[in-house]
Automatic annotation (TrEMBL), chains A, E:
The keyword Transcription regulation does not apply. Keywords: ATP-binding, Nucleotide-binding. It holds the Pfam family ABC_tran. InterPro entries: AAA+_ATPase, ABC_carbohydrate_import_ATPase, ABC_transporter-like_ATP-bd, P-loop_NTPase. This is ATP-binding cassette domain-containing protein. The keyword Transcription does not apply. GO terms for molecular function: ATP binding. Residues 14-250 form the ABC transporter domain. Gene3D superfamilies: P-loop containing nucleotide triphosphate hydrolases.
UniProtKB/TrEMBL annotation, chains B, D:
The lineage of its organism: Bacteria, Bacillati, Actinomycetota, Actinomycetes, Propionibacteriales. The keyword Zinc does not apply. The keyword Translocase does not apply. This is Xylose transport system permease protein XylH. It is found in: Cell membrane. Part of the binding-protein-dependent transport system for D-xylose. Probably responsible for the translocation of the substrate across the membrane. It is a multi-pass membrane protein. The chain crosses the membrane at residues 52-72, 84-104, 133-155, 162-182, 202-222, 243-262, 268-286, 315-338, 375-394. Its main location: membrane. It comes from the Bacteria. Keywords: Cell inner membrane, Cell membrane, Membrane, Sugar transport, Transmembrane, Transmembrane helix, Transport.
Length: 274, 427, 331, 427, 274
């Protein structure tokens, strides 16, 4: 089990203790602890199905944990709906994006917090803001007035990320935000994460990309098969160590592949030339 | 082996100067369309891609009218068209509620029973108990509200499918209607009461009707010009004034022709105007308010709406309540027009017709797609068929079959135009 | 189940099933059921009524008959949704030696039949309409016919009866309509259409019952037809009687339910005791009592529905109809 | 500053020896459940998580039966239960077709009219035209098939929503039924005809009924044991013999008790057995054949099914055809039981009841979730309510309300148990 | 425009000429050419919304192109449905996965080509094969008998990839197959791609991860805003060049970020320590 210094250290905005969650016969989370501090980027990593998204959804009020406590800003909270989590100041970009396919980009961006003039939606102002937000993220979206169903994978993800920029959250959780993004957009999102940190937000970043994690995270928490499997300080760890914690072994497909790579390269080039 | 060719980007894509364009037109993949010619090109392209909104239904309606007029010359007479407006108001009002529940992806099978119950309550309190008419109406509508809230509560608390809840409602409120009507069974509403007068004999004075048309067009033009100004200020594209005027002219034509025709007989029915006003208000509520946006979002993806912090329960509750309320109001309109209430008021036909009207008008049964105007269009289609075939004195067996054929015809036109969209794979 | 009709003696403790066809007409539950129960109570206090209403569904009626037999009914008094289809019910009842009284509508193979015949009702409606028109000095003109539901077998019988009179009456049937579900608003819509289709000379409207008559009258009034042509009806609904009082409707058919119910009770008890019920006539081999339907017009309201205690004058003459009542001499 | 703690994986997770376990139980997150105790624990956990299949509906049915028996002692008499089986067969058969279209996420509103039309055709050809009974039946069923193919073609060619197609069918085929019946309207089927005999008087000989039960249980046990062998050979987990025997005993009890009870009266109706056989065959087709798998896939996600290379059009066509065919067969059963056909055969009640039966039985209106057994359970629920209330001599108004209340009660139990699943966010 | 040596070079299994596709007002593809050879991994890269997935779907028969010709195995073909594409021997892993959420993992894996004994589905054999396939991909799926709706993002993607291993396709198209995968699973998929190449299949691989692309691809085709923007030989190109072709500029968010990185790292560490 990971040992973090103290449950509620100074500056800790969000702290989880002993979170468990079971789905039918599958124990998705077992006794998970996690601390996030203000002005820190905490990377949450783990293999597929390790329980990262389940943990994020538990914090965001989508699931209620079977067990364990959540402390936010020093108070124990029981978040039973996403609306409550938002009210607390937790913004989330879900892995499954959760967009309304039948609505256009503008409507999705402002869903649940539409701008209004009196009681009437202010479409013009929303559209203007949308373009601004999307430009910030280098998004290549031809029109914000088409339903998001017709957007490409990366465009959809950009819309979901842009959503989280509205409002003034204390904690931002990004569940694999750059998975579908192009190189330029990924860079912008990493910039964004750094800006969030600078503004003193706590950020939970889930990613399978070790390079990105090492680039922006301060600490890395590893989940393995639904349990804590260590917390690492980025400055003092190598990505090899983290990968070992993720896969649960030091010799694994990744290292094997790395070792084989040079070999392979040569033989395949030979194959082509023959 | 390939010869690697490094593309030089500036050569490859002919970039227009982006700064010269509004923010929403800067993407180079957008096919430009400016001015009236551009608008026409955009319209044609929309047509091709099957993204036509209510136009196909309107075309279907026009074809039906043509066919019916051809079979009996009185169909398009002013007198009969006035009848048609009177006949459509009640069904349309009920269908409007159905549009809302369908937008949510739910269903209400009980609108007929609710309309029957509300009219029974109104009749019994007004005629037998001598309540003042306003109180009787209020009571009946309040019952509609309560029923909807009850449905909403059952749905959100216990998760019973709305199909089953409202099926139980269909039976239960039919029973209650029989109970309320008691042993007399059938009640007359006095012909000289305000309600019957409103439904049967109240028509807009012709000058007022014309004035209304002008006012509506004026409001349209003004709001469009204001929006245009706002968009330009925000750095967004805006339709040129020429297009606004063109559309205004079109709107004027669509409004003025019926008024002229109807005025040759009794005129524009107040009850129909009441229904139109309901449609316009509901359309505004759906498209321009936060509540309406939430309804469409919930219908599209409940989970996404929930995660966006929308009060999903509240939305369900309000929509079920509105649907039942509109059903109650529709029941009152139907009863006033008939000047009587009996055990068969709001029979099962009303349910099916109201749902069919919404669907024919283009509202999806699967949630998230639809418009208040589909209640208007659908009710007109259904009542045109009934009305037109009633002029023909067919055997009932033939009448049923012709109704089916005409209905299918009207909707096939719509579906064919939509097909391309479905075939595109993401619809 | 026990042997029902066996053994003579009194009719103590018998179970009589009353199976009525529908609930959309007030008469069945407002009149037939209470009158039947009262009559039974009077002649056999210890007897029990098993009651069901089939909501116009023959299959449901079969189910209800089976339920009655399950409970040990000694006699079925059956007002069938479909007289022909009820043969199956009679068959299974016979299989258990339970006699059947056909009530209101004829059933082949029943043990007894008491009714106002449907065809006679249609004839009477049409005849009254023709008489009213002739009295008003009209011998030709257009008549619109609003028949009952196309899916109701009984409606076809009313229609046939009416046609048998109207077809040779010199009046022209300008248009005819089978009203789905007997629905008044459909009748109204159709009538409205006819006002534009039949350009002139509409002298009378045959409506099969009071509900459709109400729809037709609403259409005529809404269409500004003045004076109203005579409109027929059936069932003597309160609303229909009121329209007759106010002069909007010309007539309705009143079936004296009370004698019918009493006669059915008498026959049922006789059958329960294994006796033959008394009957004056036979219809297709079934001992029958045929009652006469009565045409109610403004002139004889007091002598029919009021006299029989179906409605009190105060029921009919509510505030809205007070003046009309006074004019019609109802008090 | 954090003290970095490098987790040592082998310490952290207590790994069982994976090689010792079957391939499907190796994941350490799986909560182990072995033997009868384990099966019970797994059942309780399923119960908690609301994943109970048809058990809640069965519980609802049992409660309804208890209530009805309490109000009238004859309800659970053998005689009445035999009636109940006779009453459920036709509705159940029609509902079985509805289950199929619902699995696809479509609807068929016309099953009532189709059943009426088919019975009308059978009656007219058999009674009036003196066709041999087999030919008459075949003709009527063939019409059902044709109608379904017609629906399927309209749906797949033009993309008209099935709601509208079948609404048109509801009207059109009602018209055709009236036309076929002609002016006689009502036709009796001879009591001594094979069809009426089959529906009214044909019961399994008691020894045969018992034999059938034994045979079914034997087949079940054998197939289970064979599957067990196969799974073990494939290196997969298999339920122990004790559980197989337990389940077989349960199955035996579930089958033998009704047979004993029914045998005290007329016995097990052949028509009901025919219906049960249809259910079992359809269940097999849905769960165990490529066609059934494709139906469920299309209902879950048409686009995914299309991309997987499934012939989506063929699936739609076959399902619509099957639904109409089953409706036609159901119509014949209903007509035979009544020994008559008239204009109101297959009235609108049948549509609603058949759809309601499927939904009450647990089939989703939104496609991709459901089972053939829901037709059986739903038909039993609906007919139990009608049958039970017919014993109570209620006024129609009260009867309607009680029906609604009981219906709601039955389904609420089911919904409550499902609620947890919905609340889990991914349902 | 890119200039490929000749439209139907020797060994070319699939060749596209002048493909255009328009959605409403958006021109998603304009005059795109592409060649895939047997035994070659062709990476298809481009910014978000560049039209990569649209191109893949066009080849797979999901969309029909407005214009242009598709040549498969030397014959011009008109693929109008995914079933036809499969019959030709084109297997596709779609970016939006296209799984039936209501079916379990086994059913999804074998959808459309279920194993049978006689006319009856052979569930046991399918389940066994599923476990084998999933093990090959290092999948961490607790049970193959739960509906895929309840799988994690990476698990779902693994299922979609495993699907493409069934059957014996000539061309395999993988649209961002590793976007949601963990490090180990990603390595397995890259191994898989190399195995496919070795077996002489043509592979089209779409990815935003330049490291992966450079590791397994032989050639890289770049799309930009729906048009061809060059074809590169991996052996002779740097990832910088490719990124420049993708973003359409040499100075972009990616390079800026790379330049700023060192600077940032220092200041953020300082920030933490203060
Ligand atoms: N709603 C659910 N029902 C059942 N099982 C679930 C549900 N949600 C998640 N699981 C299971 O819980 C485990 C953890 O899933 P989760 O989505 O949290 O993984 P993850 O760490 O986000 O993986 P990935 O990197 O692939 O996104 C998985 O095995 C999954 O099958
Ligand atoms: N069905 C559709 N309807 C309308 N527009 C569409 C549709 N499919 C794609 N588009 C548009 O076509 C363009 C290209 O989309 P595509 O999905 O091919 O991009 P992509 O290159 O795969 O991007 P990503 O890297 O984000 O997956 C996008 O602008 C998208 O909005
Ligand atoms: Mg995840
Ligand atoms: Mg893509």
């Amino acid at each position: 089990m990971s040992v973090t210094p103290s449950p509620v250290a100074t500056g800790t905005v969000l702290s989880l203790q002993g979170i468990s969650k079971r789905f039918g016969a599958v124990q998705a989370l077992k006794n998970v602890d996690l601390d996030v501090r203000a002005g820190e980027v905490l990377a949450l990593v783990g293999d597929n199905g390790a329980g990262k998204s389940t943990l994020v959804k538990t914090i965001a009020g989508v699931y209620t944990p079977d067990d364990g406590t959540v402390t936010f800003d020093g108070r124990e909270v029981h978040v039973t709906s996403p609306a409550e989590a938002q009210k607390l100041g937790i913004a989330t970009v879900f892995q499954d994006l959760a967009l309304c396919d039948n609505l256009d980009v503008v409507a999705n961006l402002f869903l649940g917090r539409e701008l209004r003039r009196g009681r009437v939606l202010d479409e013009i102002e929303m559209e203007r803001t949308s373009w601004e937000l999307l430009k910030q993220l280098s998004a290549k979206i031809p029109s914000v007035r088409i339903p998001v169903a017709s957007l490409s994978g990366g465009q959809r993800q950009t819309v979901a990320i842009a959503r989280s920029l509205l409002g003034e959250p204390k904690v931002v959780m990004l569940d694999e935000p750059t998975a579908a993004l192009g190189v330029a957009q990924t860079a912008e999102v990493l910039n964004l994460v750094e800006r969030l940190r600078e503004r003193g937000h706590g950020v939970i970043l889930i990613s399978h990309n070790m390079a990105d994690v090492m680039a922006v995270a301060d600490r890395v928490a590893v989940l393995r098969l639904g349990r804590n499997n260590g917390v690492f300080n980025v400055a003092e760890t190598s990505s090899q160590d983290i990968i070992a914690a993720i896969t649960g072994a030091t010799d694994n497909a990744v290292s094997e592949r790395a070792a084989r790579r040079v070999q392979d390269k040569i033989s395949s080039t030979e194959g082509l030339e023959s | 082996m390939t010869t690697p060719v490094k593309g030089s980007p500036s050569e490859v894509v002919a970039v227009q100067d982006p700064a010269a364009l509004p923010a929403d037109l800067q993407d180079e993949r957008l096919i430009a369309s400016r001015g009236i010619g551009g608008a026409w090109a955009a319209f044609v392209s929309k047509m091709r891609s099957g993204d036509l909104g209510s136009i196909p239904v309107v075309i279907g309606l026009i074809i039906i009218w043509g066919v019916l007029q051809a079979s009996n010359g009185s169909f398009l007479s002013s007198r009969n068209l006035v009848n048609l407006t009177l006949q459509s108001a009640a069904l349309g009002t009920i269908a409007l509620g159905i549009v809302l529940v369908l937008l949510l992806g739910e269903i209400d099978l009980s609108v007929g029973s609710v309309s029957g119950l509300s009219s029974a309550i109104m009749a019994v309190t007004f005629v037998n108990q001598d309540w003042p008419i306003a109180l009787a109406i209020l009571g009946a509508v309040a019952v509609g509200v309560l029923i909807g809230v009850f449905y909403g509560a059952l749905y959100t608390r216990f998760g019973v499918p709305s199909f089953v809840i409202t099926l139980a409602g269909l039976l239960g409120f039919l029973g209650l209607q029989l109970l309320v009507l008691g042993k007399d069974g059938s009640l007359n509403l006095p012909f000289d009461s305000a309600l019957v007068g409103f439904a049967q004999r109240s028509f807009l004075p012709t000058p007022l009707a014309y004035g209304l048309v002008v006012a509506i067009v004026a409001v349209y033009v003004l709001s469009r010009i204001r929006a245009r100004g706002g968009r330009i200020k925000a750095g967004l594209s805006a339709s040129p004034n020429s297009i606004i005027l063109l559309k205004a002219a079109l709107l004027f034509a669509v409004l003025i022709v019926p008024v002229i025709v109807l005025s040759q007989d009794r005129g524009v029915s107040t009850m129909f105007v009441f229904f139109l006003a309901l449609v316009v208000v509901m359309d505004f509520a759906i498209r321009k308010t936060r509540w309406g946006r939430s309804v469409v979002a919930v219908g599209g993806n409940v989970e996404a709406a929930r995660r966006a912090g929308i009060n999903v329960r509240g939305i369900y509750l309000s929509v079920f309540a509105l649907c039942s309320t509109l059903a109650a109001v529709g029941g009152l309109l139907a009863a006033s027009r008939l000047a009587a209430v009996n055990q068969s008021s709001g029979g099962t036909d009303w349910n099916l017709n109201a749902i069919a009207a919404a669907v024919i008008g283009g509202t999806s049964l699967f949630g998230g797609r639809g418009s208040a105007y589909s209640a208007l269009l659908g009710a007109l289609v259904i009542q045109s068929i009934t009305n037109g075939l009633a002029l023909l004195s067919l055997d009932s067996s033939v009448r049923y079959m012709v109704t089916a054929a005409v209905l299918l015809l009207a909707v096939t036109i719509d579906s064919l135009s939509r097909r391309t969209r479905v075939a595109s794979g993401r619809a | 189940s026990d042997e029902p009709a066996a053994g003579g003696g009194g009719a103590e403790g018998k179970k009589i099933a009353l199976l009525l066809p529908e609930s959309k007409t007030a008469r069945y539950e407002a009149l037939d059921r209470p009158l039947f129960e009262a009559a039974l109570k009077a002649s056999c206090p210890s007897c029990e009524v098993i009651y069901s209403n089939a909501d116009q569904d023959a299959a449901k009626q079969q189910q209800q008959a089976e339920a009655a037999l399950t409970q040990g009914a000694n006699v079925l008094v059956l007002d069938p949704v479909d007289g022909k289809a009820a043969a199956s019910v009679v068959n299974s009842a016979k299989g258990q030696n339970v006699p059947v009284v056909a009530y209101d509508r004829f059933i082949e193979g029943a043990n007894y039949y008491v009714s106002f015949q449907n065809e006679a009702v249609g004839k009477l409606q049409a005849q009254t309409l023709v008489d009213i028109l002739k009295n008003a000095g009209k011998t030709s003109g257009n008549i619109a016919m609003i028949n009952g539901s196309p899916t109701d077998p009984n409606a076809a019988q009313f229609k046939a009866g009416a046609h048998s009179v109207l077809d040779g009456s010199g009046f022209k049937i300008a248009a005819e309509f089978d009203t789905p579900d007997w629905s008044p608003d459909k009748a109204q819509s159709w009538m409205e259409g006819q006002l534009s289709a039949i350009k002139s000379g509409l002298v009378g409207v045959y409506a099969a019952n009071d509900g459709t008559a109400g729809g037709a009258i609403a259409a005529l009034k809404g269409g500004g037809v003045n004076p109203l042509p005579p409109v027929t009806g059936q069932d003597a609904e309160l609303a229909g009687i009121q329209r007759i009082v106010s002069g909007d409707q010309a007539m309705t058919i009143y079936k004296a339910v009370k004698p019918q119910a009493e006669d059915a009770v008498k026959a049922a008890l006789a059958l329960a005791n294994g006796d033959k019920p008394e009957a004056k006539t036979e219809v297709q081999g079934v001992p029958s009592t045929l009652l006469d339907p009565i045409a109610v017009t403004k002139a004889n309201i007091a002598d029919t529905v009021v006299k029989d205690g179906i409605y009190k004058v105060s029921d009919i003459c509510t505030a809205n109809f007070a003046t009309a009542c006074a004019a019609a001499g109802l008090k």
